[in-house]
Known about the structure:
Elements: E1 14-19, E2 22-27, H1 31-47, E3 55-56, E4 62-63, H2 68-81, E5 85-89, H3 95-107, E6 111-116, H4 121-128, E7 136-140, H5 146-154, E8 162-166, H6 172-182, E9 191-194, H7 217-227, E10 231-233, E11 249-252
Parallel strand pairs: 5-6, 5-8, 6-7, 8-9
Antiparallel strand pairs: 1-2, 3-4, 9-11, 10-11
Helix pairs in contact: 2-3, 6-7
Amino acid sequence: MSEPTPQSAGLGRAITVSTPEGPLELDIYTEEGYRALAELFTRAGWQHRAPYGVTWLGVWGVPIIQLPEDVVAMQELLWRVRPDVVVECGVAHGGALMLYASILELLGKGRVIGVDVEIRKYNRLAIESHPLSRRISLIEGSSIDDEVTARVHGMVRSGETVMVALDSNHTRDHVREELERYAPLVTPGSYVVVFDTVMPLVADAPRAGADWSDDNPLEAVRDFLSSHPEFEIDESPHRLGVTYCHSGFLRRIDERGDL
């Protein structure tokens, strides 16, 4: 029996996209064509809840609700930065906590602090019964509550390398406040990663919110960067084309502008 071979299904190698100047035909094998396809795939995948079926660590798998490309980007950053502490605002099912804890386990050090306004009973049970739970601490409460913020800051010891991931309430004001509260924890060369900056890109999707074009994490990032020159956007995690965090990987630099 002959081996099956990939088929193009007669689709060809050109796509036509709409631009302000009118229709534009692109070759999918060019860089411009690839970027257009990546954007279309990101938008369509978001509408169809592509990341909702993604889990981490097989039989112990917990839903992570992240694109595989962003999962890869995060593990690269964790391996490069080798943080002592990862702070995640927005726990959901706990899959991202497991991702971060598993990389820290391979590094042989570190812990994760997960903050969520509500940690549901069965999510907490799944997290606390996981083999990596010894590397995880949970705090229930709003990430922008003064007491919660103080607890997180109090759990970080002097001299520790810290990374922050923001994936909770995605309104502009909430994310902006989170950045003010948690970005100071980030050490030079490390990152604060803002998730779901994709919202304005998918604002025309059927299941998008009516105000997503203006009220989104990307606007919070722009506001934050305008007054915080100690942070810069790292574009390297976006090289796979598909991401929910475009312009959301913020690297802290030192006073000279160096890592």
